[in-house]
Protein: YitT family protein
Organism: Tissierella simiarum
Amino acid sequence: MSLGDFFIIKKYKGGVNLKGKIKEFVFITIGMIMVAVGLYFFLMPEKLAIGGANGLAIVINHWIPFLSIGTIMIIINIVLFIIGFLVVGTSFGIKTIYASIGTSVIVSLFEKILSIQKPLVEDIILQLVFGVFISAIGMGIVFNQNASTGGTDIIAKIMNKFFGIELGKGVLFSDFIITVMAGFAFGPELGMYSLLGVILNGIVIDSTMEGINLCKEVNIVSEYSSDIKEYIVNNLKRGATLYNAKGAYTGDKKDVVATVIDRRDFIKLKSYIKAIDKNAFITVSNVYEVLGDGFKNIEE
């Protein structure tokens, strides 16, 4: 969804699209809350600036303590969006604006309602690990809905436009600069912990998105290929492709049924095949992203 949606009233084609949009914003909201919880309850009390607008806000709060971290996050995101619109263009969607500003607002509300005077535990490693895992899983959920929490993503796009730096490297470079600033503000030890948090954050986000999007590519050789195909199409409501194949050893001609389904449907399919043909030959591969009919829109 582009910025043009602010100015153009777009009618949804039926309730399915509207339901899908509501579902997207529900997941984004869940992700936002997780990011805010990981940040406020675990990372902020230890001054662990692991990049992004939230990490930068923690560092700035050290020098400007009369502004809360939540307020600084809101200011940073607004400023970055304005710069992004002027420099890069209208490539930031409504979902990203909602996620980035919303996360900042939730943190600000936590600061006003649930004041924390000290870390939950004395072990900084526990604070770092729990904070990173909770917030990174939240970020992964937000990213999976084709949104982002703003911050260094926008800086990376600006660097990409003017210097040709890849987006991933731009985000990593920006987060690294923030951890260096944290080192100057809070000392080299906290700076190194923050850098470790940046690395863990990237790993957990990637793992979360892979886990959410994980599907199974299934190829089935069976004498009952027609029945299996009908089960996939009519019961699982998924598509399938039939290939004509010839066995190298027997020379028999058979149909190979190929399909891509989620993990829950794979369990159902395997049980069905087991019930009708225990001699079926099945190969299964993990697929981490599927685009097209019935899955994620290729335009997103």
Residues 1-16 have pLDDT under 50 and may be disordered. The chain has two domains: 3-212, 214-287. DSSP finds ten helices and four strands in the chain.
